[in-house]
């Protein structure tokens, strides 16, 4: 089972940059959300209907709110039409007039969509500050923190996300990635399992996370375990070959071979 939910991100590890994309490809339901802007949680998105009272009867606050709602509706439409630069400009215009929850969140996600994890942090941090109990937001913000190497914050946010929404598979899988990077392999496998992975898939995912950390022995061990389990996916043997190859190359001359492109199994 696998759904690719985001473009590849840059990790902090010493693994080759050609390998960085692997984790998002091989781990089921991981990464940041790219959900349609019109499907934001109802707790975050207010109705965007513009007030119709005559301008003379509106207070300054009401007029500003009406302007914000109109610009926000425009930004959402632009995003849904794939006009990302225009949408980001509109969301920023919203923030010029109001401290708007949706604008903070969408700008964070759009920066991530463009691979700009560092730029996304300020927007995610502000969004979480305003909505500390929104599981989807915490899931996205946690994974984004992981991508810039802030694993303590990532783990904290992801644990809170699964506490608030135990059925949110993406949060469990994102937490599995963070725990694997941290070296908590048992916790990683448990999180992947709670996210819907089979034992073989859970070991594969942990193995790939170890690869991105250049922990060849750990990766090899998890791939071997995955291969020995019932229903082992083809990527288990592929990952094992990769781990052995990278380990041998690093022992010989420090060279890490290019990573082959793997086709991720689709759900």
Can you put this structure into words, describing what you see?
This protein has helices spanning 22-26, 60-80, 84-97, 101-113, 117-130, 135-147, 151-164, 169-182, 185-194, 199-212, 216-228, 234-252. The chain is mainly α. α5 (117-130) packs antiparallel against α6, α6 runs antiparallel to α7 and α11 packs antiparallel against α12 (234-252). It is 61% helix and 0% strand.
Describe this protein with a few key phrases:
disordered C terminus, mainly alpha
Radius of gyration: 21 Å
The overall pLDDT average reads 81
Proportion of strand residues: under 5%
Helix content: 55-70%
Task: Count the E strands.
Answer: 0
Shape estimate = elongated
Distance between the termini: 4 Å
Q: Which blocks of ≥5 consecutive residues have pLDDT under 50?
A: 1-25, 38-52, 258-267
**Helix-strand sequence:** HHHHHHHHHHHH
Structural category: mainly alpha
| Helical run tally | 12
Could you describe the largest sheet, including whether it forms a barrel?
Answer: none
Provide a compact summary of the structure.
The protein is built from 12 helices and no strands. With 267 residues, the protein is mostly helical. The longest helix has 21 residues.
């Amino acid at each position: 089972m696998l759904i690719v939910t985001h473009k590849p991100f840059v990790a902090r590890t010493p693994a080759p940059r050609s390998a960085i994309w692997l984790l998002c490809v091989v781990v089921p339901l991981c990464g940041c959300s790219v959900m349609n802007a019109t499907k934001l949680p109802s707790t975050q998105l207010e109705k965007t209907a513009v007030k119709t009272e005559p301008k003379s009867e509106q207070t300054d606050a009401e007029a500003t709110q009406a302007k914000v709602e109109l610009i926000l509706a425009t930004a959402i439409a632009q995003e849904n039409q794939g006009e990302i630069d225009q949408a980001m400009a509109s969301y920023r215009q919203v923030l010029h007039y109001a401290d708007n929850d949706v604008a903070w969140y969408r700008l964070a996600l759009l920066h991530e969509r463009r691979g700009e994890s560092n730029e996304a942090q300020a927007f995610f941090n502000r969004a979480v500050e305003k909505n500390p109990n929104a599981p989807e937001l915490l899931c996205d913000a946690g994974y984004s923190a992981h991508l810039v190497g802030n694993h303590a914050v990532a783990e904290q946010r992801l644990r809170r996300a699964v506490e608030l929404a135990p059925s949110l598979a993406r949060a469990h899988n994102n937490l599995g990635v963070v725990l694997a990077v941290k070296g908590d392999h048992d916790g990683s496998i448990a999180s992947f399992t709670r996210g819907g992975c089979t034992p073989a898939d859970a070991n594969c995912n942990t193995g790939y996370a170890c690869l991105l950390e250049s922990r060849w022995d750990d990766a090899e061990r998890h791939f071997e375990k995955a291969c020995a389990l019932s229903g082992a996916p083809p990527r288990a043997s592929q990952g094992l070959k990769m781990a052995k190859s990278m380990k041998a190359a690093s022992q010989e001359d420090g060279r890490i071979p290019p990573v082959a492109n793997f086709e991720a199994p689709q759900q």
